[in-house]
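quick one if you have a minute, typing this from the bus. theres a chain ive been looking at and ive put its sequence and its fold in token form underneath. please have a look and point out which stretches look like helix strand or loop to you. anything you notice is useful, everything is just below.

***
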Amino acid sequence: MGDSEDIENIKFVSNFLRDCNPNNVVVELCEERFNSHYNEIMKHPKYEAIMEKFYQVLNDDEKITKLSEKSNLIELKEMEYLIGIDVCSYRLAQCRSVLGDRSYSITKKRMKAKTRLSDILGDEESQQNLLQIASVETSDSLPEEEIKQVDQVIEETSSQEEFDFSKIRDDVVAKEKKTYEQIYDEVVIDEVNQELLKNVSKCEGNVVNVIVKKERISSFGK
């Protein structure tokens, strides 16, 4: 995403929240990610002065870019969530910021378990995708529910007259193998969407704004 698109997103979030004056703003962040990316920024001694200046030059793309670079506080691509939290917490009256995402650690573990199954089944494409995820290791054991599914196929096949291990493997692959994209959609898109919507449903008040990455918006239509 280039600077110009980042800036347009930042402007949209700031202006939209001020126009709506919501009771709650739910952001696609969990506490872990907030603490690692934004908490220290908001505690910075010059944070308030920089943000005030930021809002003053909000309609001047060149000045926004220069201010972001000069302050060395946060990259433009990270600003959408920060602006949402800042506007809600400090620029609007009676607005509550909500971290609506599931814990990053849980999502990462779910991805590990799901991709591990495809790795065991010899799906070369999934193995390559797995290697591209720096944070994913393949040493974890399979979740109990998927072990049971594999065992069930082995048990059904073992009861036949001829024990054919290759057929066991083929049956397991046909039944359980998923592409990396399918696993990603299940764990990172669908499951996180459910968590976001659950947190939205808990909000009190008449107006709730939700800030998510543009790529996630279409998935809510499922």
In short: Residues 105-186 form one domain.
